[in-house]
């Protein structure tokens, strides 16, 4: 499929971002990540309305939070989002930084067994912490982890975004008919692939996420059932010292696609409650799910 031709606005945005990247990549890793996080939190978030969306979603999903905690999260959430983006483009330095990380959790033995027996594996994660750091830790343990990605709307930006993601690990599978076909072949040959589950799909069935109705695609679980792939929830959570805790949860039992997906939603919800500042609260996760409150907040 031919990529769409970038519009003038796309090119100007991409030109600015490339210039910003060149300046940031000249700095030491931690300075670069911290500065990007601060700029995102203090400048981009207020300009784009992100703080309002964060407050609205917190009011819906975690109404018990005190006002000072909400205020903290409206600043820390975009800070971590900024770090996450720059981590994608800091592959050489971040890979070195992540060498001391260890992959832990009850799912590790199952991953090792799947690799030994040639069984396909689906690592299901969300927009929390750093999935790039998690990918490096898995690679260091000898796991080759592919990833499914959604192309950016800006085709000029998308070109270097895919290059950066590919530098963090390969293979990469575009969220398209051809990309999904390639991913199925990878799974059937015993490969591993990471999938982000917490994106709203308006045509998806309504399940529960953080005790609120949320449209959630069943496709990952359906694929796992069809191809007998192991399903493992996995996350890379930032620690206060800027190291990462990389975990592989217990395998999700093969039941029905809806039950498996709900279990994955519950697993991610627990991580979000434990580390709310590291989840992408700017996404309209609960919209169009029969939840009037979520729709009214937009």
TrEMBL record:
Gene Ontology molecular function, alphabetical: acyltransferase activity
Keyword Manganese in annotation: no
A Pfam family that the UniProt record links to this protein: Lip_A_acyltrans
Protein location: Cell inner membrane
Keyword RNA-binding attributed: no
GO biological processes: glycolipid biosynthetic process
One GO CC term on file: plasma membrane
Record key words, sorted: Acyltransferase, Cell inner membrane, Cell membrane, Membrane, Transferase
PANTHER family registered for this protein in UniProt: LIPID A BIOSYNTHESIS LAUROYL ACYLTRANSFERASE, PHOSPHATIDYLINOSITOL MANNOSIDE ACYLTRANSFERASE
Identification of the protein by name: KDO2-lipid IV(A) lauroyltransferase
